[in-house]
Amino acid sequence: MSRITEIAISHHRLALDPPFKASWDGRPRTAFDATIVRVRDDEGREGIGSGDLMKGFEGHEALFIGEDPRCLERHYEVLSHIDFHYGRCWPLDLALWDLAGKVMGEPVWRLLGGRADRVRLYASSGVLRAPEAMADQAERYLEEGFAAMKLRFSASAGGRAGWREDVRALEAIRARVGDRMALMVDCNQGWRMPWDTSRPWTFKEALTVARELERLDVEWMEEPLHREDRAGMRRLADATAIKIAGGEMTRSAAAFRDLIAERALDVIQPDVALTGGITGCRRIALMAREAGVIFTPHSWTNGIGVLANAHLTAGLGEAPFLEYPYDAPEWSLERRDFPLARPLTHSQGWLVLSEAPGLGIVLDEDRLRTTRIG
């Protein structure tokens, strides 16, 4: 029987030149950090995860050493207690699923239900480009086979000059691609970076924007209000034909239970690297299915996070699309996936998962050595 013998955590930093000017962050990003979690067993196998910083985990290793890595529900409960007392340590859940798959000789997507070995992607942009440049980017996505894309509106000062300018970028895209591509919009109002004190939209502002998005046939409107304003999101969902999406920073399955029960969102977007791991997000996906709410994960971490979300989505067969962060050149696949031996490859808007046991992660150990900061 497999037993956990070691948990190792390392931190890495990739310099970004030119910087990445993320729409949700007024400060250009000159580096991209990744935390790698490794779980080893007594037969030499290694499970790998990545995502949050694992703050608060140090000193809790003994709660897992000597345990069977396949006892995933037990490990989830322990991690949920650590989450309550300290920080989000869900990358360990990803590593445990990877190791469990290797112990059992099966890919994680099959262990989760095996509905499919592939997921359909939407290209998720991150940079606030001028309208014509956004339309050019949309055409490039179409040429690569993507059937949908998401563009960002400005989070606060430092972006475009208000939501009307954002709508102009959306209009340019729709004029260029017509009905050949589904469009989603992330309004960037659900949360702020620690230094950003600007207020989110009011309900009336969000409703005004929703009317513009209806005119442009947008699939969903993401994070249009503060993340805790469940009543406002329910009102907005009732007032517009546009689907209301959110939840990328919602921290627990219980919070998603309330969002689903109150019909505050039409589309929920947990991320296995940030909320509950694969174990917790599986519960959320099944709750959403029973309630008729769309499940489609957020995945703005790195290629390991994309893979883990893809395995969950394929295994359950729940999502119409999976988010695929990809906005070259500032957010290229090479930057996003720098911990991996090779960037993930997409084909005609799909990500096909392998038959390799676990999550199918192959790390670039040389790159990790040269980028290690802790």
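[next item in queue]
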Amino acid sequence: MGNNHDLIKLTSAELSYLWATYLADSMAICVLKYFLEHVDDEDIRSLTVHALKLSEEHVKFIREIYSKEEIQIPQGFTEDDVNLKAKRLFSDVFYLRYIRNMAKGGLVTYGRVLQNTYRQDVRSFFSKCLTDTIELDTNAAVLLLEKGLLQRPPAIPYPEKLEFVHKQSFILEGLGRREALRGTEVTNLYANIQTNYLGVGLATEFSQVAKSDKVRKYFLRGKEISLKHIKAFGSYLEMASLPFRRLLNKRFLNHRKHLFLIKS
């Protein structure tokens, strides 16, 4: 077929995916550059530098393809949106957790994007994004494991016999109306609890340094929403006798001083 993508216009999916990726990576560049102003741990610094390099490559590719196609380049986030001289708010461990969370989001996003991307150059770009993100996620997970900070989902009993669903309503029943949770439900509940704890940390620190009262209240509202989600998701795990509080409290909350730095 040859390289005939010059003759093929971007589809609505390709155009919007590139646009969303540009915004996400331009924001990541701001965040990661700020992290690099304060990070002390050499392993975490190396991972942060690598993550920054990936985001910069993504933004460069999208700017080039938009320019070539004579498409308006999004404003995205710029150096005007970050104060690199601001005091440190978060610890190195928080930086590591943040990057891992970025990678987890990227794995989901790029997998969905590839299903609707067909032009060869754009598909190759997003394929590389996915491959790079797999590597980034692996490196972050290994680093968390080496530092004794990786939280694994709760264990559930191994199946000992075959069981079959005999009624269609099984799929539609609410989480609290069944005797047991499915493995995927346990996984998703636990993953959402972890993500919301990260959100609590972000909202707490940003609310403490926000100059605008309106913005401060916005962050505090976000914090309360995250706490409500943690409570709601955790209640289902507790009903299933899965010890999410023991796992998270000892390994996550007791690392609070290592997770984010509270402004005095």
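[queue empty]
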